Amino acid sequence: MVVIPFDTLAYARRLEAVGFTAEQAEVQVEIMAETFIHNTDALVTRDYLDARLAETNGKIRLLFWGQGVILAAIVIPLLRDTIF
Question: Following CA atoms 57, 62, 68, 69 in sequence, which dihedral angle do they give, to the nearest 10 degrees?
């Protein structure tokens, strides 16, 4: 799980400084903290994405070369029959 630092006390103090009551600030802080916890579970790292991209690129290359071999297996006999 990715951890994003979130200073709940500083956030509550800022809310109170602009007119929120202590109770309103506390509820807002709880909601924000819950949101960070739930949404960070869905985050992925750059390393994870790079690994998946490399894996996908490898599969694409394999498919590309496989299609080339199949095409060569079809075309070479046809050329051999028409030239000779």
Answer: 170
Say yes or no to pLDDT of 1 above 60.
Answer: no
- CA distances to 11, 29, 43, 46 from 2, rounded to whole Å, are 20, 19, 7, 12
pTM of this prediction? 0.44
CB 18 within 8 A of CB 39: no
Domain ranges in the chain? 1-43, 45-84
Nearest to 2 by CA among 25, 36, 33, 53: 36
Full 3-state SS string of 47-69: HHHHHHHHHHHHHHHHHHHHHHH
pLDDT tens-digit readout, 30-63: 998 888 776 666 777 888 899 999 999 999 999 9
> Do residues 16 and 25 lie in contact, with contact meaning Cβ atoms separated by under 8 Å?
yes
Whole-angstrom Cα distance, residue 64 to residue 66?
A: 5
